[in-house]
Structures are given as structure tokens and as C-alpha cells.
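JOB MANIFEST
job_type = single_chain_structure
chain_count = 1
residues = 173
[input]
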Amino acid sequence: MKGYTNGILLLIAGIFAVFVLSPGCIGNEDAEDRAKSGDLVKVHYTGTFDNGTVFDSSMGGEPLEFTVGGGEMIPGFDAAVVGMRIGETKTVRIPADQAYGPYQEELVFVTDPAGITGGENLTVGDQVAITLADGRAIPGRVTNISPGEVTIDANHPLAGEDLTFVINLVEIG
């Protein structure tokens, strides 16, 4: 009976060694193969709204290159890439607070077009710079024009939107 028990224990140890300790198996992924903070990575992505409409994509072009955790990307996108392997594709839904933030009504300004350089030629959709009281300039886009008034929205165009991205990690540099 003792030989039988030892044989079973050896069999279990062998299975453990093959499925748990072998490279590439569960529990023993090589961390070097995974994207981590500080890595320069290249990804292809497609971004969609909740209704499925595509708002941006790198497909058919060059992959997007950025440093993970470098503050170049929206927080939810950055976090989604951490732990990915080259060739891996992931779909992630990013809530507005981890994307471009909530829509802020206080970032909508109504002003006299005479106070804007080229104000007489503005059209809806034009990009303009808004100078704040502290002297900082922020970008905005014209959303409405009426006699003597122009409405400028300084929110990011995707502010307040939950976004879904399909991300494919192409390279870890």
C-alpha cells in the first residue's frame, strides 16, 4: 500500500510540475512578456460609443505608440494595457470618469464674437482658444452662433461618454 501511495504522490507532483510550473502555464506567466508601467508599447485600437458607433480607430494605419503609465492616455486605456501580452486582444468598457471625465456645464461660455480673433468669420464646429481670467488659454469649439453671441464649449468632445475600446497589443519596446 505504501508503494501505491508514493506512486500517486509522484503522479500528482508530476502533474503539478507540468501544468503549474512549466513556462506559459497558469500561475507562471513570464512577467517580461506582459506590458507594465514604464513600457513603450504599440497598440491598434477601435473606440466605440455604447450604441456601437466607431469614434476613432488606428486600424488600417500605424499603431498608436505610448508609454504605459506616462500620462499620455486616458486612465482607463492605460490601465487596460497593463498585463497584456504581444498579440493579445482585449475589449474594455471605460466609464466617463476614467476616460475624458464628466461633461461640465461651467466649461460652456457665451461671449461676444468681437472679443475673439476672427470672430466675424466663425462657424459652428470651429476650434478657438478661450483665455481665462488667470491668463491661461484653453481650447474650445463653437457650438452656436447668434447675433452678437457665440457659444463655445471647452469640454473635450468625448466628455461625459462611456467608451468601449478593442485593444490589440502589437509591440512592447
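[summary]
The mean pLDDT is 85.
The longest strand covers residues 137-146.
exit_status = 0
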